[in-house]
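Sequence, please.
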């Protein structure tokens, strides 16, 4: 299949032009970009797309999402992370979902992602009560069927839940502690067997699906498991994807558990590397940032989720200055409630203007676009394959109508994309050289039928969810006290108003 886009405005985000738009042509042959530049010859038999009045740019990358939350979208509000997790990641009364429901849940996320310009996702997939190959396969089947590029994990926690958060045993009633203590976490050998089988089954499917290693967080996993996962990540050239210091509670956790910050703990274990991707990185000190920059890690900045959960604001300017690569993520589909990266771009661009009085250090639109494209690709170790329009890279791109209200009057295209556009101007979406969205319609699946099927299953799921919520709600008073206690502690920094 050969496609020729003629005379469009191109925003390459790489290849020497970076975020400077220019007018030119783009040739797709098979799954890759074959040529890009002005006045290219049109190959015989090519499908021609006239680019006058159109903007062509790389597909957006969602560097961190949890699709498993999608059935809770719009359900929870006004909870800090540690309380919210009781409901979104229940430890009591949870049971494995039917594979078809997992397929539809994943398809819900993927369909909205593609229609709003996200061509590549990193799904840090967690199933309650634990990962199962059949369920991971159901999610991957959805991504394969719809045509999106996806890196998918088997997110793992292998420590007792009560021992992952400080002070819980001071407040959780004894009978509930006894019940939770009886839950057997996955062992390191069992986890390694699982991820090896998942990698063998799913990695490389359709040229779009990859697997990764995802130990949940340093306080939630044993050193043995994290070190073993890190070795596999290095061997497979896969991301080591984890969460570090998202909340004030977690900033207290490092000193309480290890006598040092969680970043320092990871560094001392040898777990900060160029293939390490950290979700959040909010409550980090200057010393932490220096360690991260020296190691060449990536950070996924989840600007909307961090605000909804009251977690704080990552010091993105400091991270960039230190040499940390930054991508953008939606985070969970009920801590953000959508996978739309256009929304995240605007939030990220705005929130850092209010936490730094030095406006010369505010993020500009080009930096935000880089984080949403090439920076995001780097978090998944896909920067050589996607994230920019360059010869030899995968043809993952968007064609937008540049004559809509979002681009009128047209001033700086980059500012329009970050501050004015919301995905509604998208006309076509290509992934792997294939048009997967045309005029707002998904070309590979029947979105209306799939949504109707999911809606039909929701009453039974919601009835089950009410029971799970009631069981885990018994823990909420204790976890409220934990959060309040940690919030009152002095950790020598604030992430509600500081990125100076």
């Amino acid at each position: 299949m050969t496609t020729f886009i003629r005379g469009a405005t191109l925003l390459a985000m790489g290849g020497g032009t970076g975020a400077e738009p220019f007018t030119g042509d783009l040739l797709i042959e098979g799954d890759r970009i074959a040529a890009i530049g002005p006045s290219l010859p049109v190959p015989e038999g090519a499908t021609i797309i006239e680019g006058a009045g159109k903007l062509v740019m790389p597909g957006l990358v969602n560097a961190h999402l949890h699709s498993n939350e999608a059935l809770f979208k719009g359900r929870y509000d006004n909870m800090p992370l540690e309380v919210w997790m009781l409901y979104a990641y229940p430890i009591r009364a949870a049971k494995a979902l039917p594979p078809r429901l997992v397929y539809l849940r994943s398809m819900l996320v993927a369909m909205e992602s593609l229609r709003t310009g996200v061509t590549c996702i990193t799904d840090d997939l967690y199933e309650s009560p634990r990962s199962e190959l059949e369920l991971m396969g159901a999610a991957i089947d959805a991504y394969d069927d719809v045509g999106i590029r996806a890196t998918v994990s088997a997110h793992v926690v292998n420590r007792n839940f009560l021992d992952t958060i400080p002070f819980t045993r001071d407040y959780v009633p004894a009978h509930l502690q006894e019940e939770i203590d009886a839950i057997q976490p996955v062992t390191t050998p069992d986890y390694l067997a699982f991820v090896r089988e998942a990698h063998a089954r799913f990695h490389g499917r359709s040229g779009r699906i990859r697997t990764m290693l995802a130990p949940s967080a340093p306080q939630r996993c044993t050193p043995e498991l994290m070190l073993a996962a890190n070795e596999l990540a290095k061997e497979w050239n896969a991301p080591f994807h984890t969460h570090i210091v998202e909340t004030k509670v977690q900033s207290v956790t490092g000193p309480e558990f290890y006598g040092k910050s969680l970043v320092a703990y990871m560094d001392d274990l040898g777990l900060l590397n160029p293939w390490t991707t950290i979700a959040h990185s909010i409550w980090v000190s200057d010393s932490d940032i220096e360690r991260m920059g020296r190691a060449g890690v990536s950070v996924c900045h989840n600007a909307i989720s961090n605000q909804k959960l009251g977690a704080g604001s990552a010091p993105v300017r400091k991270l960039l200055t230190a040499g940390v690569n930054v991508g953008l993520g939606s985070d969970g589909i009920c801590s953000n409630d959508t996978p739309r990266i256009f929304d995240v771009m605007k939030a990220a661009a705005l929130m850092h203007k209010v936490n730094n009085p030095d406006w010369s250090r505010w993020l500009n639109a080009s930096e935000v676009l880089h984080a949403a494209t090439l920076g995001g690709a780097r978090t998944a170790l896909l920067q050589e394959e996607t994230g920019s329009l360059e010869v030899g890279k995968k043809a993952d791109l968007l064609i937008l109508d540049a004559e809509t209200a979002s681009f009128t009057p047209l001033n700086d295209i980059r500012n329009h994309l970050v501050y004015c556009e919301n995905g509604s101007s998208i006309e076509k979406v290509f992934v792997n050289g294939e048009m997967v969205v045309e005029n707002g319609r998904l070309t590979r699946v029947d979105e209306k039928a799939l949504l109707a099927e999911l809606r039909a299953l929701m009453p039974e799921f919601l009835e089950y969810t009410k029971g799970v919520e009631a069981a885990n709600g018994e823990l909420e008073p204790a976890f409220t006290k934990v959060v309040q206690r940690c919030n009152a502690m002095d950790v020598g920094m604030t992430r509600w108003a500081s990125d100076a």
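Residues 447-473 form the longest helix (27 residues).
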